[in-house]
Structure formats: structure tokens, C-alpha cells
Specification:
By secondary structure, this protein is mostly helical. About 80% of the residues lie in helices and about 0% in strands.
Length: about 220
């Protein structure tokens, strides 16, 4: 067990300070505010979705502002931020699919709500279980060698670009498609993004071990 923990802790790396500020701005302003807040308060306006999602969105924005101001002092906190951001944003996208389904498509059954969140829960559980298993037996999941000069912001930019493209396609299609088709496209895009953001949620686990390791080091010192 100690060998497994040592392997896990060895794989834990802090994000470089010089990329924190730009990544926070991309994640919050584009992925969260632009592609979640706008459809949240847009037509059809449904108050219950705003009441559920707006408080955590405001909290994430304030948190992001603090990280942008002093990223060097909050390098470890940024990992926690990514995990919380991933959880809120992923759940936010799933909740938005409910608005598209019931507010735009006019579904009158609760089966979509039950089925979509059941699938979401199973997928999240399977994703977490798979990733934790990699640390229990590192030999079965060897890491790919790092490529020099690789852009560390690539995953963030890729996710943001994908979201923007899907949202743009849906809005452009308003000119020649029915509301039902637009809602279907948005449901597909937002559902896929909710699953992609599982990657960020795993940073909660990273933060736990890094925080524990730091406390152990301080105690030893």
C-alpha cells in the first residue's frame, strides 16, 4: 500500500504558476460564464434553474478573481479550484440539458430527467473508479512520455473550442432550423461537455493527496 501511495504522490505535479492566470480566465469567462450563464438567463427564462445554478457560478467567479490576483500564493489552491469548477460546470451543463429538454422541447415526462442523471451518475462513478485504479496498479497504466514544448493549456483550449463550436452551430441554425432541432443539438453538445469535464473533477482527488503530502512534510520539518 505504501508503494502505491508513493507512486501516486510521485505522479502528482503542481500546475506552473505562469499558466494559472490565463487558464482561470479561459475556464471561467469562456467555458462557464459565456456558455452557461447566457443560456441560463436566456429564453425561455425559467427561474428554478437560475436559483440553482447562479449562486455557485457567482462563487466560482469570485474565487477565480482571487486566483488571478495572486496565483503564486494559491498554486495548490488552484488544483482545488479546478476540481470544484469541474464539478459545478459539469453539473451545470447537465442541468442546462434539462432546461433545453423541458423548456424548449416541451417534454412532459420525468423519464428524461431520471435517465439522464442516472447515466451521468454511472459514467462519473466509472470514470473515478478507473482513474483511482490507475494509482493502485501503476504498472498497468504507464504514462505516455512527455513531449517537450507541449502546451499545457491545450486541454483547456480544446474543451473551450469544442463548446464554442457547438454553441455557435446551434445559434447559427436558428436561422433555418426549428427550435426543436436547436434544442436537440444543444442537448447533445452540453451532455458531451458534461462528461468531458470529468477530467477536472479528478483534481479534487489530486488536491487531497497534495494537501496531505504538504502537511506531512511540514510536520516532519
Amino acid at each position: 500500500m505504501s508503494d502505491n501511495r508513493a507512486s501516486f504522490e510521485k505522479s502528482m505535479k503542481m500546475y506552473p504558476v505562469d499558466s494559472i492566470r490565463s487558464n482561470v480566465i479561459i475556464l471561467v469567462l469562456l467555458l462557464l460564464d459565456l456558455f452557461l450563464v447566457i443560456p441560463l438567463v436566456g429564453n425561455p427564462y425559467i427561474a428554478v434553474y437560475v436559483y440553482v445554478l447562479l449562486p455557485p457560478i457567482v462563487m466560482i467567479n469570485f474565487w477565480a478573481l482571487v486566483l488571478v490576483i495572486m496565483p503564486r500564493k494559491l498554486q495548490l489552491n488552484y488544483i482545488l479550484f479546478r476540481g470544484v469548477f469541474g464539478l459545478i460546470c459539469s453539473m451545470g451543463f447537465m442541468i442546462m440539458t434539462q432546461k433545453f429538454a423541458y423548456g424548449m422541447l416541451g417534454l412532459g415526462t420525468s423519464w428524461y430527467f431520471i435517465g439522464s442523471f442516472a447515466l451521468y451518475g454511472v459514467a462519473l462513478y466509472s470514470f473515478i473508479k478507473y482513474n483511482l485504479a490507475k494509482f493502485k496498479d501503476p504498472s498497468k497504466h504507464k504514462k505516455k512520455p512527455k513531449v517537450k514544448g507541449k502546451n499545457k493549456r491545450a486541454p483547456v483550449v480544446t474543451i473551450t473550442t469544442f463548446t464554442g463550436a457547438g454553441y455557435l452551430i446551434a445559434n447559427v441554425s436558428l436561422g433555418f432550423a426549428t427550435q426543436q432541432l436547436v434544442a436537440t443539438v444543444l442537448i447533445s453538445v452540453y451532455s458531451m461537455l458534461a462528461f468531458v469535464l470529468f477530467h477536472f473533477i479528478m483534481d479534487l482527488h489530486r488536491y487531497y493527496w497534495l494537501h496531505k503530502l504538504r502537511n506531512q512534510n511540514q510536520t516532519t520539518d
